[in-house]
Amino acid sequence: MAQRKLNHHDHLLAGLRKRNRDAQFQAYKQYSVAMLNTAIRIVGNKAEAEDVLQEAFLAAFTKIDKYKGDSTFGAWLRRIVVNKSINILQKRKVSLVPLDELPLDLSGEQVTESPDTPLWNIDQIMHAVNDLPDGYRVVFSLYLLEGYNHREISQILNISEGGSKSQYNRAKKKLREILTTPSYV
Length: 185
Fold this sequence. Notes:
The chain has helices at 2-17, 21-43, 46-62, 73-91, 122-130, 134-145, 150-157, 161-179.
């Protein structure tokens, strides 16, 4: 089974390298939903995410020769989607606040959940994530939803690793605030 999947993957990549339209369509069918969801989580709206998706696939198809196979094609494509999404945010002039410029207490105290903490469904949580400020949402999405670590996020966003951790913790705090407002409970 693994050999068959590998052969399909190799066949798809060979087709992409030959600029074969059927291979491009197969790649689009296979990866578009996941990549669109990644873009939506970062840019915060479907219309811009669809633009990101088109740009990312176009870039992947035209620059397939730059794919060296160090990671899966899906991981390489996801990185393109993340970078294109971040470019959209930079055009919006989203700023991530450097850790050393924050006036707030960074004591690092852990917030413990009480037994009375309400539970939310996934739709409420995703809606609340979309309500986060762009900078918080980007770091939160990259870390928790896309699986990047803070070192990788700091490199992608050109911020310090501490800045990534701070943005993530602030995103969690803000998300908790959003979810505990009466309209979400």
